[in-house]
Fold:
Amino acid sequence: MLFDSAATNWLILGLLLSILELFVPGTYLIWFGFAGLLMSILTCFIDMALSTQIIWFAVFSAIFAVIGWFSYRYIFKKTQTPKEYRNLNDSAQQYVGRIVTLAEDVVDNQTKVKVGDTYWLAYSEKPLKKGATAKVTDVKDSLILVVE
Structure:
């Protein structure tokens, strides 16, 4: 072993894995680092063979990985965007379901519609005339409203 004490070796491994977490993408090495630190504490008090230490490290790593998975799952579930705010920055998606007025006749399935004080490109398969009202049913490419 590198040093005389197994506890020192496990401490170094735990700290190394924890520091590597800062440089490697992802968030999983910290949990193995915790297992290494726990092994350091355990080997301070209990004398074990190297094979037994490796088995316990694997068990603790699995336990900490499961704890990490549940922790991240809880955090990400809690931080999800509420349904009413999902389209906050997608202004075109906010118009789905609205009634709009056509600013031009439909030519080649394309037209412009007036929404509030702005004009949007729109797509329609029906031959609608200027001034007609239509309902926005979908959005294409976040720019074109699909009307019927």
